[in-house]
Input
Amino acid sequence: MQDGFVAELEAAVAELPAPPGGPQLLELRRRFVTALVRRLVGLKSSDDVPAAEAAHAVVAADVPPDAVITGFRAAASAVWTLARDLGRQRDQAKYVAMLESAGEIWVEYEQWASAFVAAYEVEARQRDRIAAQEREAHLQAVLSGAGGLERSAEALGMPLIGQFCVVVLEEALPDAEQRLSAKGLQSWWSLNVGIVSGDPGDLAGGRVGVSPDYEQLADTPRALRLARIAVDTIPPGSSAISRYGDRPLEALLVSAPEAAQSYADAVLGPLFDLPTDDRQTLLQTVDVWSKAGGNVTDTAAELSCHRNTVRHRLGRIETLTGRSLSEPRGIAEVLTALQAYDLRVPEHAQHD
Output
C-alpha cells in the first residue's frame, strides 16, 4: 500500500476531536497515529515512543493519565475503522491483507500505552516530590516566621486571620490531617507539628502539647514555642494532652531545664544515694501525700500501708532534704523539686 494511502488515513484521523492538554498532546496523538498507520501497512514505525516527553506534557497540563490511554485506544479504533472503510473502497486484496495485519495496531497501542504509563509514574513521583518539598518549605516559613508569610499562606491555602492553634505530638501521626478533616477541621502538618484551625480534641496517644488559640497567622512561631513547652510539661512515658497554661509550674520548670535539673539535684540529691527501690518508695509517698492534700490517712489508704509508715517516710524525706513538710516553703521546695525530677527525660537512670 502506498504512502498516499497512509496520508489519507492520517488526514482523516486529524479530523477527530482534539485531545485534552493542548498542542503538545495533539502532537503526541499525531505521532501515535503515524506509528499506527505505518504498522498497519507493514512499514517500520519512524518514531520511537516519546514516553518521557509525553508524560512530562501530561503532568504539566494536569491531564489525567487515563484520559491519554483512552485517547490512544480511541485513535487506534479510529485508524482501524478508517482503514477498513478506505480498504473496501480501494482494493479488495489490499483490504484482506489489512485485515490480516490488524493485530499490529494493538501491538503498537500496547507498546505506547505501557511505555507512557511507566514514564508517567516516574514523572508523577518527581512532581509529587517537588510539590512536597515546596509545601514543606512554605510550612516551615510559617512556623519559623522566616518571611514571605502571605506567599506561603496562599500556597498552603491558609487564611491570614482565623482561629488557629499549634499542636506538637510526641511522635508523628501519619493520618493526623485525615482525622482532623473528619471533624471538620483544616490542618497543616510537618512531621509531628501541626497548625490546626480549631480545637484538635483527643488526637493521639502519647504526649500532646497544644498552644493557646490565636487569630493572626503571623503569631504562629510564638504559638509553636508555647506548644513545645506544653508537651514538655507532661512526664516522659505518660499519655496526656497538655494545653499551655494548664500546668504553670511545670511550664516554668521546662522553660529553664538546666536550672530545673540543678534545683532537683540540690533538693533531692541525698535521695539519689539510696537504693532504687527505697528512693522510689519515698518519692511515691510524698507525691501521693501531696495529691491527697497532705492527709496522712488518705495517703496510707492509697499506698495500702499504716499511717505511721507514711509519717516515718515523710520524716525521712525531711531529714534527707533538710526541708520541713509542715511548713509551706519546705513543702513548695520539695514538691517543685519532685516535679522537676519527674519532667526529666529518663535520665533518672543515671541515679540508679
User: Anything to note?
Assistant: The domain at 3-128 is CATH 1.10.490 (Globin-like). Confidence is low (pLDDT under 50) at residues 345-352.
